[in-house]
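Onboarding guide, step 5: your first structure request.
Type a short instruction followed by the sequence, for example:

Predict the 3D structure of this protein.
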Amino acid sequence: MAGRPAVPEVIWARPERTGRGPRPAHSRADIAAAAVRVADAEGVDAVSMRKIAAELDMGTMSLYNYVPRKEDLYELMIDAVSGEYAYPEPTGDWREDVLSLARQTRALMHRHPWMPRLMSPVYGFSPNALTYLEYCLSCLDPLERPYGAKMELIAAVTSVVTTYVANEIATGERTRSLPWSAEQEQAVRIAYLGGQVASGRYPRLAAAFSEDSGPIDLEAVFERALRRVVEGFVAAG
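The system replies with structure tokens like these:
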């Protein structure tokens, strides 16, 4: 197929324009923006080389001359949305700076709900991803740990955020697909759960629910999860 490399290749090492021909009609930024628009509106499964080519009013084979593989298209998409981060001057409090970035990541993933599915260390070397990692490390300058340990902390926090948001998105999508309200669903499930816990077969769960049977503050849970990762990292030495 036209444009496909015969050996492994990093899309960022591939020049946007090859040879001395005319200037390309589209840039990588154009292609990434089109793919992001489609994914935001229709989901990542709607992203195909044919679809993106049509969005750009070009032939599918022509698109392969810009982006050799669909995986490269995904990498362009992740890099494009990674450019939405804000990078304020680090405060000197590395814990709060890390948590602030985690909150940005969560908001970013909710703006682009397809992101958790595409998150991969393979895409961690794009221009905007490298900018993000460099900023993270600058926030961690006050932390006296080797760079390898700092990178592990960044990866751990990112994993927590990605998993948490993926669950939020999946829950929201399921709720929207139901023929009844979320409140009706919750009432039925709580009634069933209450009966099971009251049966005596689950004494520890009964004790847990008796401690706090009120509504769960999901924002507080998210913050606690992040802080436990950060503080656990410090305690582990």
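Each response can be followed by summary notes, for example: The chain has eleven helices and no strands.
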